[in-house]
Every structure is written in structure tokens, then in C-alpha cells.
Specification:
185 residues; alpha/beta; Rossmann fold; five-stranded parallel sheet; UDP-glycosyltransferase activity; transferase
Length: 185
């Protein structure tokens, strides 16, 4: 099995996985996908960034697997508005959930922003955005790929690990099972 990790970060687990899975584990990473450069796709986002000064814009995205609650959306929106910093914010809703972006945001939020903020509904080309010269920081949920991309492209990360309780539980469960040799799934 090939894993997008390295022994320096997860050596203990790399050694443990073959014991429970009876398959050889080969760490091949960390790997970061290259930038797929389709200039026409999402060009309005890149054009918006082109009008911002160097390192003047914050990129806010919480990945493809975590969806912020209505309350979290409101708090993030208020924080971004009060910061007076340029930002691009990607907001995603679970598949099948019919939510209008304007309804999820605080009333009048988009109008008050003017050209200072861009709110994107659904998906944005994260790697292309992170390589843009206007990006000075990345507010991230700390997913593996997001952290690697932030590091690769030299963008400082404001870490907001959205599923930290789950990670702590998994870490504790794995530590316990490794100590007593029981298998945890």
C-alpha cells in the first residue's frame, strides 16, 4: 500500500499498519498535486485576485469534507468583515442540501464588503489561489492536502482544525490499541 506520508512524520504508524493489515506499507510522500492550469476555469477568481496588492489577501477555506454550521458561517463572516482585510472565502454546503449562499450569510454582508471580499459558493482552485502573489495568509481546517499546499507554496497558515475532537479520539484510540496490541478500526 502506498501512503501519502513520510516516516519522519508517522514512522510509528507506518510500522504498525502492516501488523494489522498484513500488507506492506510504503510511504511515498508527502506529495502535493501540481497546479492544473485551465486559464478559463474560475478565471473570475484569479482576475479578482489580480486587482489586489501583493500579500494583501487572506484565503479562507475549510476543505471539501467539513461543512461549517450556520452559526460558524455568521461568526466567520463577522470576523472577516471586522478585520478590514481583503479576503476570498470558499463556502461549501453538503451535497443535496439546497442552501442559497446569500441566505446563509449575515444580512447585507456581501453588499458591505464591496471589492474587499469575494465569497465563492462551492469550490475554488485552491492551489492556483495559494500561488497567487496577492495571497498573504491561509485560514485552513488543517486537512492534510491543505497543509501541504500551504507549506509548498510558502503561505502562512492560520490553523483552525475543525474536527480536532475526532482527531484526538482517533489518536488516543490508536495509542491504546498499539500498547495492548488490539486492532482498532
Amino acid at each position: 500500500m502506498l501512503y501519502n506520508t513520510c516516516r519522519e512524520l508517522e514512522g510509528k504508524y507506518i510500522d504498525y499498519l502492516p501488523v494489522i493489515g498484513e500488507k506492506k506499507v510504503v510511504p511515498v510522500g508527502p506529495l502535493v498535486q501540481g497546479i492544473v492550469d485551465d486559464e478559463n476555469e474560475h478565471s473570475e477568481i484569479i482576475q479578482w485576485l489580480d486587482n489586489k496588492g501583493e500579500y494583501s489577501t487572506l484565503f479562507v477555506s475549510f476543505g471539501s469534507e467539513y461543512f461549517v454550521s450556520k452559526e460558524e458561517i455568521e461568526e466567520i463572516a463577522h470576523g472577516l468583515e471586522l478585520s478590514m482585510v481583503n479576503f476570498i472565502w470558499v463556502v461549501r454546503f453538503p451535497n443535496g442540501e439546497k442552501v442559497e449562499l446569500e441566505e446563509a450569510l449575515p444580512k447585507g454582508f456581501v453588499d458591505r464588503l464591496g471589492e474587499r471580499g469575494l465569497v465563492v459558493d462551492g469550490w475554488a482552485p485552491q492551489a492556483r489561489i495559494l500561488t497567487h502573489s496577492s495571497i498573504g495568509g491561509f485560514v485552513s481546517h488543517c486537512g492534510w492536502n491543505s497543509v501541504l499546499e500551504g507549506l509548498k507554496f510558502g503561505v502562512p497558515i492560520v490553523a483552525i482544525p475543525m474536527q480536532w475532537r475526532r482527531l484526538v479520539w482517533l489518536w488516543r484510540s490508536t495509542e491504546t490499541s498499539m500498547e495492548d496490541s488490539t486492532e482498532t478500526r
